[in-house]
Structures are given as C-alpha cells and as structure tokens.
Amino acid sequence: MRALVDPQVEVRREALALLAYVNDLDGGLLALVRGSLEDDDALVVDAAIFALGEHLDRDAVERLATIALEHDDARCRESAVASLGAIGDDRGRAAVLAALEDKPPVRRRAIVALSNFEGPDVDAALERAANDRDWQVRAAVDQLNKEVD
C-alpha cells in the first residue's frame, strides 16, 4: 500500500488509522504497518502502534516493547504499552512493568495493560502502584481491583 510510504505525513497517518479497522489484514500489509514503527513522525508511529495492537500482531511484540521502553515521545511509549497489553504476549511483560516508572499517563496505561498478565511480579507491581504519587494511577489500580473481585 503506497499510502504508508507517502511523502505526506497526514496520508501515512490516515492510512494507518484506516488499517486499524480493516478485518483480517494479510501478512504483507501487517509487515508494512510494522515498518511504519520506524517513521520519523511520532504520530505516524503512534498510529502504527494502535493498528498493530488492534490486530493483536504478535510479530510486533519485541519492537513494541522497545518502543515502550525507549521512544523519545511519551505518546508512543503509552500507545506501545496499551498495545502490548491488548496483545498479552509474555514477551511484552517486562516492558509493561517497566512503564510503571514512566510519566503518569504511561503509568496509568500500564495498569490497564497489566490486566492481561498474571503472576507474583504483576501483583507486586500493582501493590506498589496502589500508592503511586498520581491519584489517577491509584484510581486505575482501584478500578482494576474492583473488576477482578
């Protein structure tokens, strides 16, 4: 799909936004979407992350984990954490747990993402997050605990 490599940023973003809602993307298109994770524009990267999460693309997990840990743009880190949570692949677990040390919006997203993971490390992380300095992070933990009960 040529739109994913169009010189206009808006075209690339829109193409990715539309692809997020296409049923049964073939492997070739998913590979092109994965390629968009390397775009220079953070909002293109964000749109690619969302599309990959919507398609539960397990082939993207390792790259999404790297983005969640290292991307300069907090929006991309937050989106990557959300997609890792949606995908629920254990290879993304460490990145989601590490996101609990990021900015408040990323930490809040990590709480939600952790709902798809289980284990003593997750339980301990949620216990620590219940005392987070950000009230919205604490509220997210409370909400998650209510849903589990």
Order of helices and strands: HHHHHHHHH
Q: What is the molecular shape?
A: elongated
Q: How many strand elements?
A: 0
Regarding quaternary structure, how should these chains be classified?
single chain
Report the sheet-strand fraction.
Answer: under 5%
Counted by DSSP, the helix tally is: 9
Based on the model shown, name its key terms:
149 residues, mainly alpha, elongated
SSE arrangement:
Blueprint: H1 9-19, H2 27-35, H3 42-54, H4 61-70, H5 74-87, H6 93-98, H7 104-113, H8 120-129, H9 135-148
Helix pairs in contact: 1-3, 3-5, 4-5, 5-7, 7-9
Task: Report on this structure.
By secondary structure, the protein is an all-alpha fold. 65% of the residues lie in helices and 0% in strands. The chain has 9 helices and no strands. Helix 3 runs parallel beside helix 5, helix 5 runs parallel beside helix 7 and helix 7 runs parallel beside helix 9. It is elongated, with a radius of gyration of 16 Å. It starts with 8 loop residues before the first helix and ends with a helix. The model has no long low-confidence stretch (mean pLDDT 96).
